[in-house]
Amino acid sequence: MRQAGRYLPEYRKVRRQVGGFLELCYTPDLAVEVTLQPIHRYGFDAAILFSDILVVPDALGQEVRFAEGEGPKLAPIRDVAGLAVLREEGVHDHLAPVYETVRRLSRELPPEVTLIGFAGAPWTVATYMVEGGSSRDFATTRAWSLADPEGFGRLIEIVTKATAAYLCRQVEAGAEALQLFDSWAGILPEDAFERWVIEPNSQIVSIVKQKYPQVPVIGFPRGAGVLYERYIDKTGVNAVSLDTTVPLAWAAERLQPKATLQGNLDPQVLLAGGEALERRAREIVTMLGNGPFIFNLGHGIIKETPPEHVARLLEVIRGNGRG
Fold it and tell me: Of 15, 65, 78, 154, which is the active-site residue?
């Protein structure tokens, strides 16, 4: 999960220096600085590249902007004809500042701190491309995928190809592990989950592993429920991030023998702090700490979270001797 962000005063100071969010993502000096901020403050075991999942559609030629207080806004692509605005050439030139950020981070991070690169998974990225931003019901995206699966599949193919190449370039620049965020995987029924989540994620993992078999890939099919197990079996990921709804006993029994688990503290609990935070953190470590495990949140950190709650969480985890 993203470590930097608006909960940190030092991040807010940097953010005020740039006109737009994408400008921050594409300015290596600043992107390096905000990536390192939580490492300097907390001493995490890994640093997560500061960027955004929408740099891929932006690099493909779709109009992407971030409206202050409203989130991302995209010029929507609603049918096959709309794919004409996408260009597959020049993507890496557009993303060159991101690769430069990764290169600098690989030099500046302490050797014991792992550098994690990331990208949005094709289904989740496609929902933004079709809806024109975030959505409550994803009705337009689902309608296109049902009415014209071949045409919608072409969009998924374009994003899949670009994403796989993007992740490989991150590894070439110095990323030591990768994470695929499929934040809206859980809205799909079983058959659609198979086609629009498992298949493209599997293709991406396969392409990365063919070139860089030593690089671990973490998948995050948020909301997948019991389909987490199938996701692990079919995609070839080395680890999965668990959202906050996944029962720990079930995850330990069914998932942990197959993959490293990452998660899954509720960000609301981190926001609340106090006894609730300490109790839940210890429960997670107790339930998952006997197998391969990375302590993390079950979704992104909430901007109102007091930084001292994060510091206390680390004290609790490290006090357990594992994390």
Answer: 15
Three-class DSSP labels, 279-295: HHHHHHHHHHCCCCEEE
Query: Which among 11, 26, 128, 231 is annotated as catalytic?
Result: 128
Whichever domain contains 86, its CATH number is 3.20.20.210
User: Is the pLDDT confidence value at 322 over 80?
Assistant: no
pTM beyond 0.90: the answer is yes
In a domain, 146, yes or no: yes
Does the active-site annotation cover 6? yes
- Alpha-carbon torsion, ordered 240, 244, 247, 252, to 10 deg: 30
Active site (annotated) includes residue 222: no
Kindly state whether residue 175 falls inside one of the protein's structural domains: yes
Residue 2 annotated as catalytic: yes
At 230, list the tokens: 């199938």
Cβ distance 216 to 178 under 8 Å? yes
Read off the tokens for 256. Answer: 């942990």
> Domain span at residue 152?
22-241
**117-134 pLDDT per residue, tens:** 999 999 999 999 999 999
- Cis preceding linkage at 238, omega within 30: no
pLDDT at 69: 74
Q: How many CA atoms lie within 13 A of 92 on its CB side?
A: 12
Query: How far apart, in whole angstroms, are the C-alpha atoms of residue 97 and residue 103?
Result: 10
Handedness of CA 287, 291, 294, 297 (dihedral sign): negative
Domains: count for the chain: 1
Supply the angle between the helices 199-211 and 122-131 in degrees, to the nearest 10: 130
